[in-house]
């Protein structure tokens, strides 16, 4: 009888200890690995929530920057970390949903190697034109491009980036052709747009330049209008709903296999920080949409965007040589 009861007794003893371990999380500092250098928007949001979560949970949340290779360095590092919730990854969705299609030798599976934790910001890019182009709406830009084949150009933050794909899809959907001018990052792309060296681009954080009259906002990717520029229509409103596929977000992931209870606790704490009025204000001031999702919703967004970009890359034939 005792031999039969022994496994049951052992299992009964283990169940409370597993639950207690989840309740005790975190019992040591948590590292949030960020895929960009210090000073960027992802980094700023990471430091904002790290401070809030440290105060809420009584443990230190450390932000560690591991930039490079379109976020692949940070992603590969976290993929290899213990699946215990103490090493997290914060990055732009393009690393997981676009990079695998346009970069060679990506060292991870974007769906299988990570456990979704929380979405931290929604990307809603705006089509921006330099006033010298002489257009104030999408209809005017398309007409200008058709009247001047191969004469206009657009900047991006690099080959295979969101703005690159958006510009290529705009060309395809409107039967036009504007030349792509890739830059190494957002700052030089916007600087040359402001200087009139390029004609248009896609960006989410230039509302101040629009309001000052330095740039014209022609359309918003969508699906909703931008909270920073609510007067600017979406592409769907203007008859180009396909443009909505070039969307994105910032999110937090843990290594695959991280316990569900730990993921749930982390999600609740991230969302608590992101729902604070001051946090919403900061995120929107950066040009992003404030969001708070469940791990399941983030996982669904990842899979949908990954599928969409596979179709778009095949359609636009974008690649990085």
Explain what you see.
The protein is of the alpha/beta class and 321 residues long. It has 2 domains: 28-122 and 248-316, D-Maltodextrin-Binding Protein, domain 2 (3-Layer(aba) Sandwich); 126-245, Periplasmic binding protein-like II (D-Maltodextrin-Binding Protein, domain 2, 3-Layer(aba) Sandwich), CATH 3.40.190. The protein has helices at 2-24, 41-57, 72-79, 94-97, 99-102, 138-147, 162-174, 186-194, 207-211, 260-274, 277-285, 295-316; strands spanning 30-34, 61-65, 87-92, 114-123, 126-129, 153-156, 179-182, 200-203, 216-220, 248-255. The strands form 3 sheets. The chain has a 5-stranded mixed sheet, with helices on both faces. A 3-stranded antiparallel sheet has the order 8-5-9. The longest helix is centred in the N-terminal third of the chain and has 23 residues, at 2-24. The chain is globular. The model has no long low-confidence stretch (mean pLDDT 91).
């Amino acid at each position: 009888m005792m031999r039969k009861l022994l496994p049951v007794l052992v299992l009964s003893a283990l169940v409370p200890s597993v639950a207690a371990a989840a309740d005790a999380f975190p019992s040591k500092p948590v590292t949030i690995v960020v895929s960009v250098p210090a000073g960027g928007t992802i980094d700023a949001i990471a430091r904002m929530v790290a401070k809030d979560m440290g105060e809420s949970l009584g443990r230190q949340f450390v932000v560690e920057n591991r930039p490079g290779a379109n976020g692949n360095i940070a992603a590969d590092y976290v993929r290899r970390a213990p699946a215990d919730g103490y090493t997290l990854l914060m990055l732009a969705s393009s690393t997981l949903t676009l990079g695998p299609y346009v970069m060679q030798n990506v060292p991870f599976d974007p769906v299988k190697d990570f456990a979704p934790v929380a979405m931290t910001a929604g990307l809603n890019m705006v089509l921006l034109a330099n006033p010298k182009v002489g257009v104030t709406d999408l209809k005017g830009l398309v007409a200008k491009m058709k009247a001047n084949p191969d004469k206009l150009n657009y900047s991006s933050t690099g080959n295979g980036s969101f703005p690159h794909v958006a510009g290529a899809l705009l060309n395809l959907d409107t039967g036009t052709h504007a030349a792509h001018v890739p830059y190494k990052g957002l700052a030089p792309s916007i600087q040359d747009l402001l200087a009139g060296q390029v004609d248009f681009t896609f960006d989410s954080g230039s509302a101040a330049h629009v309001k000052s009259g330095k740039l014209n906002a022609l359309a918003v990717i969508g699906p909703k209008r931008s909270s920073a520029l609510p007067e600017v229509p979406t592409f769907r409103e203007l008859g180009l709903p396909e443009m909505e596929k070039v969307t994105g977000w910032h999110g937090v992931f843990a290594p695959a296999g991280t316990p569900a209870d730990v993921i749930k606790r982390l999600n609740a704490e991230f969302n608590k920080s992101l729902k604070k009025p001051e946090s919403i204000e900061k995120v929107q001031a950066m040009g992003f949409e404030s969001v708070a999702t469940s791990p399941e919703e983030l996982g669904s967004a990842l899979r949908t965007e990954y599928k969409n970009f596979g179709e778009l890359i095949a359609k636009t034939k974008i690649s990085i040589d």
